[in-house]
Amino acid sequence: MTLNRTQIEALPASYQIEHIMVRPNIILAPMAGVTDSTFRRMILGMGGCGLVSTEMTNANSISPKALKRHHLLDFLPEERPLTMQLSGNEPEAVARAAATVEQLGADILDINCGCPSPKVTGGGHGASLLRDLPKLERVLRAVKQAVSIPVTLKFRAGWDEDSLNYLDTAKIAEACGIAAIALHPRTREQRYTGHADWSRIAAVKQAVSIPVIGSGDVRDAHDALERLHTAGVDGVMIGRAAMSNPWIFLQISQLRRGGPVFQPTPADKCDLLLRYIEMCSHDMPEQLALNKLKQLIGQLALGLPYSAEMRANVQRSREVSTARQIISDYFAPYAAQADLPCAPHPELVAA
Ligand SMILES: Cc1cc2nc3c(=O)[nH]c(=O)nc-3n(C[C@H](O)[C@H](O)[C@H](O)COP(=O)(O)O)c2cc1C
Fold first, then answer.
1. Whose CA, among 35, 75, 181, 284, lies 20 to 30 Å from 85?
2. Distance of CA 25 to the CA centre of its chain
3. Are 183 and 212 in contact (CB under 8 A)?
């Protein structure tokens, strides 16, 4: 479905999480192992993203000693407003962690009730809470009592197709004073298979009066606006597409304004990768920086002509300098044609 200008102009552009204005209402989904401070700043720097979140952090690991070992909650002021996401299932422990997160400077605290990983659900965290809504309610009430920042909830549609309880979960959240909710409408059983059924998100929007954010399978700018329109949600979250196309937030804002939509050339992708290497190298030890680059290039360079060998060579690199050279060499032929939109790789032209 392609929206016309009148429909686009009627779409909401912002929503409030209590006193916090989220504008634009297109937000980066939390992704464990991906959305660290460096990634978040890269996305924010490109424009069009109204809110970011830390990766999920186990509430039991929020002690001053543990925080020195892991850096999941590190952030810089330019990321504000910032959501920090916790997982847990013991009301008191999650409430204690919530208070610490507030002291650390979070603007919003999000509770994870959707992670499908057996490592997480095995401990009763994440989507496991969907099997025990009274417990989820105790967790939410305890957390609400412990902090004064807004608390939000991110959840799935249910444990499996036989136990869909997204409407109940949404209503419980609202009754507990949760400020906004985000639904990824797959079940835990589905993990990331099948498709995200946005009619479930639309049904939640009808059932509660707090802001509802939809998450799942938004692949491009058109998808995002169409979801806002058909599901009637307050905001849209973007996860995996932010890795394959970090410009998606910018493109959504351009599509909304009716102007030309930026289409990155290979030279733009090269610039972004090199910038990301610099940021990672500045922020973390070399091996971590290299791993982050490998993660991004695996998504960002997919589909670029003759890039399989380059991607494989980057994956084999042991040093950042080697990876940087491989990337620069691959993209060098494009540099001269940087003004051409998506110029074909010279080898492709020769073939
Ligand atoms: C690698 C990866 C890690 C994720 N980690 C988290 C997480 O830490 N917390 C969370 O609430 N959701 C997490 N998710 C789910 C996403 O936030 C999002 O709801 C889901 O990927 C669907 O959106 P998408 O199709 O735009 O990716 C993760 C997803 C992926 C792919």
1. 284
2. 13
3. yes
